[in-house]
Amino acid sequence: MLKTKEKYLYKNDKRIFYLADTCWGAFTSVEMPDWRYYLDTRKAQGFNAIQINILRQWDSSLPINGREPFAITTREDGSYEYDFSKINEKYFDNAVKMLEEMKKREMIPALVLLWGNFVPDTWMSHFVKNNTMLFEQIKPYITYVVNN
């Protein structure tokens, strides 16, 4: 567990320098063999943390087939819409497996629970049509993630 004392960051009571890479779309777009290779490479390069979006980022590449956090409807024009009331448990189970690979390498996951494109009336929400969570949908999602 990370702790802060004064102006320093500690892990297991030892002061650390937080050196993170970002792999925002890891949970949606990276297969396990590639994930292991990526983690091994970053670990060898001295990184001790990876920053990841739990949900798909608004400007992301297409996810691997079936790798969506919620039930999804894809339209003919390629746009999509989530049903935020239907969590895809397989997606989150895979995310847990990916986090377990980080733990094996003693790397710190820095998880972004909710990128701004999912929050109504943010500047980013205007780039993705029909895909923002209603405020009453945010709490059940956050509760699910935190408890699982």
From TrEMBL:
| UniProt xrefs under InterPro entries | Apiosidase-like_cat_dom (IPR025277), GH (IPR017853)
Its domain of life reads Bacteria
Any idea what this protein is called? Lactobacillus pasteurii CRBIP 24.76 WGS project CAKD00000000 data, contig 13
Location of the Apiosidase-like catalytic domain: 5-147
